[in-house]
């Protein structure tokens, strides 16, 4: 998940991993100024401001269909923004 995050212009990086049958683990990382935690919490996950995750029921196609449109929506409407008090802090 660090490789996509290292590319210029990437605000959120998501890594989908199929594990146990019927479960997909999603690791979410965010750049400074964005919140991985908000996205994870929206689908029942948790973690930290810039490193969060969730385990979703279903196969990888269902997980992608559920989370990618939500991530795009969060970025588009500003819900992925980190709180102002921590948005400027470096890692």
Could you characterize the architecture of this molecule?
This protein is α+β, with helices and mostly antiparallel strands and 91 residues long. Helix content is 36%, strand content 26%. The protein has a four-stranded antiparallel sheet. The protein is globular. The model is unreliable at 87-91 (pLDDT under 50).
Put the structure in a nutshell.
With 91 residues, this protein is α+β, with helices and mostly antiparallel strands. It has helices at 2-5, 36-42, 60-77, 84-87, and strands at residues 12-18, 23-30, 46-47, 51-57.
Number of helices: 4
Average pLDDT, to the nearest integer?
85
Class computed from helices, strands and strand pairing? alpha+beta
Question: In what range is the share of β-strand residues?
Answer: 25-35%
* N- to C-terminal distance: 16 Å
Tell me which oligomeric state these chains represent: single chain
Q: Compute the gyration radius: what is it?
A: 13 Å
Q: Strand count, sense and closure of the main sheet?
A: 4 strands, antiparallel
Low-confidence stretches: 87-91
Shape: globular
The portion of residues assigned to helices is 25-40%
> Could you tell me the number of beta strands?
4
Order of helices and strands: HEEHEEHH
With strands numbered from the N-terminus, the spatial order across the biggest sheet is 1-2-4-3
Give the topology.
Blueprint: H1 2-5, E1 12-18, E2 23-30, H2 36-42, E3 46-47, E4 51-57, H3 60-77, H4 84-87
Antiparallel strand pairs: 1-2, 2-4, 3-4
